[in-house]
Amino acid sequence: MRVHLHNDVDSGLYAELLLKIGDGCLEVDAEGYISLSRGFCDLVENDVDLIAHVFPELQQNLSCDQWLCARAILAPKNEVVNRINTDILKEVQGEMKEYLSMDTIMNTELSTSYSVEFLNSLELSGVPSHNIQLKLNVPVMLMRNLNSPLL
């Protein structure tokens, strides 16, 4: 779905509707979905169509900051965000590199409390996954400095 936002009086209605969605005030069907009017969004059948609709000619426009900043796909859950990001990354030419977070326990007294595998499996909002995949020249949005201490 691609949301239409214009710089006019509808912007207030749009913001109000987004607040209702975020607050869970809209009617939900048996599967947990809400209904939106056709004027609110463009419908697509799957993630591939969504990516093509929001990011047409991605490879040619990847280096244009203004083009990228004018587009966004919003998703309700991290697992959906991760899936869409992976699909977008597959569309970009180049070799995929895998990076793992530091998984050394600093305080050895706590090392028996949580396994490294468990800690690596956590998906926390605002914190990158243990395993991230990147390609050269693909933008990365860093939300904060995650400078880890030197060992």
TrEMBL record:
It comes from the Eukaryota. Residues 117-148 form the DNA helicase Pif1-like 2B domain. Pfam families: Pif1_2B_dom (PF21530). This is DNA helicase Pif1-like 2B domain-containing protein. It comes from Psylliodes chrysocephalus.
